[in-house]
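Lesson 9: reading folded outputs for more than one chain in a single document. The general rule is that every protein is listed as its sequence immediately followed by its structure tokens, and records are never interleaved. Here is the first one.
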Amino acid sequence: MSYSIQGKTAIITGAANGVGLAIARKFIDQGASVMMADRDEKHLRSEVSAVEEENGNARVFHCDLREKLSQANLISATIDAFERIDILINASRQVLTTDPMDPDDKSVEVLLQQNLLTSFRLSQMVAKRMIKQAEGQDVDSVGSIVNLSSIAAQRSRPGLMGFSIATAAMDQMTRTMAIALAPEKIRVNAIAMGSVMSASLKTSLNETEGLRDDIVAHTPLSRIASPGEIADIAQFLSSEASGFITGQILSVDGGRSLLDPVRTAAH
């Protein structure tokens, strides 16, 4: 089986920074046509301009994907630019701390909206498009959806309660959507990340003394992953090489989830 995604069209959300940007760059470099979506228009355009001029297979879409109209417009813009959608990478996510005893803390609601419901609704809309464009074709694969999750879904730390709830829901959504879309030959998988040098982790490392050492000490491979390593996994799950894989939550965490879950809650 081939790991190639050349000639495929992908929508990648959260593409202005960190892991989402790394996945977008990887896909563009591998010959895919990529629609990069994010709320951070300035950073998004600054990142894609040189790439677009050189390769001509990247576009940007500035929007707030919490709005249903924005999701519909994103799909329309992708079809206008590239005529089809083969891959959806739900990489737009937010990390907030939670005070479990504060009744005014809204982080659970915010993270469920941002990290779960946005990806869920966009997946529904993209799946319908994938099914429509495959009508009358006899193919083994119609499309692939990859969600970015976290090992926090299986970890307990009060300060990350909202994030843990949202990612646990994301994992279950991945499994359920995989079953629902399997008859349509659309695969749905997730990447459960450990500590990856994302934009949010960079901020946390700068603000929290000793955090880097703590993460390394509780990761068997003794390091923090680069965003590019997640991009490699995203390519695998989007390619024919993973053609018989669906509904899986693939942990990419340097072995961290093998340790005591209470002591190793994801950062």
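And here is the second record, again sequence then tokens.
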Amino acid sequence: MSTYTFTRQEKKIITLAALGGMLEFYDFIIYGVFSVYFAHQFFPATSGLVTVMESYLVFVLGYLARPIGGIIFSHIGDEYGRKKILMLTIILMGIASAGIGLLPTYAEIGFAAPVLLLILRLTQGLALGGELPGTYVYIAETMSEKRGMAFGLTMAGVNSGLLLGMFVNFLLNYFLTMEQLTRFGWRLPFIVGGAVCIVSYRIRKTLQETTAFQKIQDKPTLPLIYLLKHHLIKCLSGIALVSLMSGLAVAAVIFMPTWLKEMVGLDAGSISRLMMIVMVLNIVTIYFTGKLTARYGSFAVLKNLLLLSGFLIPFGYFLISHGYITFGLVIIGCLEGAAVMITPCVIATLFESKIRLTGVALSYNIGFTLFGGLGPLVITNAIRAGHGIYVTPCVYLLVMAVVCAGGLVCLGLSRKEVQKGVLAGEFAG
């Protein structure tokens, strides 16, 4: 059994990584949370659903930039160190977030408004493409013997960025009218997000480079080419493993406020309160999933999560469709919390240290782009075509669970290997 005791230095590392990830994750997700307030100002249209779809096209393009950012920053990270990319990405994220908050609307500068919004969103995507994989690898390499609880605590902190976004949404809905929110209130979270990135940058300057990186002797000249040549099956498996986490993150958290407002018909105030409850329990779930992982191993926990998902996803949407919205949202949100903790913990064990960041970044970013970034458009288009507003996201998430299970099968892990956690041995490199 893994120990739950951390040294003072390890506690510092977890705190700094979690806080930095929280601030950067907040900057990225507030677009999904607040787009319902500003979409019509950049994409004017007669149909509210069409406006939402155009706004979320920019959302998807932000995700499409993540694999590119992952390739660029992972090359830097595998060549010059994990800490380097954690510094660079937070600067980019801060500039992009503040830029969105200060951006003139379509009525003020015309077609340039959505174009600039797209550029800033792409910049966010590039930054996050290196940020989160960098955080995962940094924690895995710094505390390989305790990575179950280390990931649990770190991801609880990172996902607190979602809670922070929901809390800001709740405060703005409480203190501002809908007219004020759509006129100027939606800008405040982006401006504040840009400012707090300065805090995160100063925090990350105190981090030390990982020992695993410092021990690397035979770095490949082109980590991406080496990865695809020698670890292609692991890459494809890693991409598939990310499917359930990314689908849940988008459908259950980022896209959920828009879905509840535009399709279910809830008012903004009720949505903000519900999402606050969901995110608090989500973070609690992340922490306890970390404890389970420390005790039973990451692959065993992921397998059981997949089995639970097959039952709990339909049950959650069944409750929502019959008026038990809070209970349904909590079930889906807690599943997201478990998935967002266990998936990075698993994929961080798949690759040797000299190309670990490249492998994690490629698997994570392509998986999130394919299975998460396209989620809002797929769900919205399917509902617009006449499919059920509750059945559509439910089926989408079940498909993601099947894809994730396929990733485990492709890895070909036996029960004995899972129990022993033999892949952790790669951290010795």
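What the second record shows: The first helix runs from residue 8 to 42.
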